[in-house]
Amino acid sequence: MAPPASKRSGYSRRAQFSSFLSHTAGVVGVIIGLVLIVISAVNPSSFQSLRAIAADATDPAAEATAKGRSFGDNVLNSVTGFFKMGSRHAKLEKELAIAKSRLVEAEAIEAENARLKDMLKLTRTRKDVVAVATLTASTPSSTRRFATLGVGRNKGLEKGMPVRSARGLIGRVLEVGQTSARVLLITDTESLVPIRRTKDGVAGFAQGQGDGTLRVRLVNLGINPLKKGDVIVSSGAGGLYRPGTPMAVLTEILRDGAIARVISNPTDADYVLVERAWAPEAPPVETPAEKP
Amino acid sequence: MLEGPTTRRDDGPRPRINRAPSPILAQVVPWLSVVLATIVPTWFVIASAPMFPPFGFLTFLAWRQLRPGLLPLWAGLPLGLVDDLFSGQPFGSAVLLWSLAAMAIDNMEERFPWRNFATEWLVATSLIILYILGSYLLSNLVAANAPIHVVVPQLVISIFAYPLIGRLVAVLDRLRLTAVRISR
């Protein structure tokens, strides 16, 4: 379609002026955009109150959709499950047999653990869960990985609290509004979590790559001991993330680390737990050595 | 400002007695559709990778191409601000890129007043590619670098999604000009 005729301003002063004004407004938009970007590059948290207000305002609708989302997921899973049932069943029976024997081992370890804790007088109270909530929204068209939680300051959330699902670590609270909070997912490029391998405690860091995978880097240089299929958990080094929270499985080994796939896909998590930020307790015995 | 397209008889439904397009509807629909296209898709999935096309930008682009001049040249400023609140991009990135895109389309209109499908598609596709790469670079400016292959699926999906969004906007345009009962 041809542009509207009013565009060609001709000799009319008024038309010329309004055309000039609209062009100026376009340029002003560009300039304001540039200024805003510079401000947010210098201080990324500068517009957090605005974002919090916006998230609070849309929170009721987002929560309603979140309910529908998990319902839709369930329907989809039931349908695909129906078609895969036979082979799944056989495989599950085999896995169950293995799991039963593992369970017995785990019980033994648990008992031993309790005994050792008694000895050390370490009592863990489960006062660390602040809130149980749903993830209501995310940023599906950006390379940054944020999600929005359906609870905020009203449930006692604070900046920096780790967020996890039943399966594993999801992220941490970045900005808190009145009824919603913004979560930095562990797959975001700005997220850096200290980790260790479950087997032997090889220590390292996991940084998000923005595409659902993590880049694992080891603290110790030298021969890379990682193997495909290894499970990594958060190590708790430096505080914040509770040690031992499951995080990811290594899928690809690189020269100085690995690529890992996150265990707890935030889309599958109906509910997530917001925990109190973890702080390492003072060592009970006088040992200056840090844990690996 | 309902000049041009809205008063012509060759588009929109046939006039009927006591029915006329509502000026409020005609003005509100484009703005509202862009805002909704920005906000609503963020509710449907907790994404672990950029997987949705930037629906807000695509709708904005489609309105500017379908009805040049309906959204003013400065519309990128308020609409981009809304997008920045929800998109997760560094604040201001949509304001900048939407304003630039609006100016680019405006410029193309002046150069090629009579366009065909190929030109429109080419302009839109190149703007979408530039927009996604621009957003990627701007978010890298603020955060740590994400690998470039992260945005490739999104790029492809967006290019294929644009004609569909264009259709949808055309439907909304009909709705915008539907004759409603006028009470006098």
UniProtKB/TrEMBL annotation, chain B:
It is a multi-pass membrane protein. Belongs to the MreD family. InterPro entries: Cell_shape_determining_MreD. The lineage of its organism: Bacteria, Pseudomonadati, Pseudomonadota, Alphaproteobacteria, Sphingomonadales. Keywords: Cell membrane, Cell shape, Membrane, Transmembrane, Transmembrane helix. It comes from Novosphingobium mangrovi. It is found in: Cell membrane. Pfam families: MreD (PF04093). The keyword Cell membrane applies. The chain crosses the membrane at residues 24-46, 86-105, 117-138, 150-172. This is Rod shape-determining protein MreD.
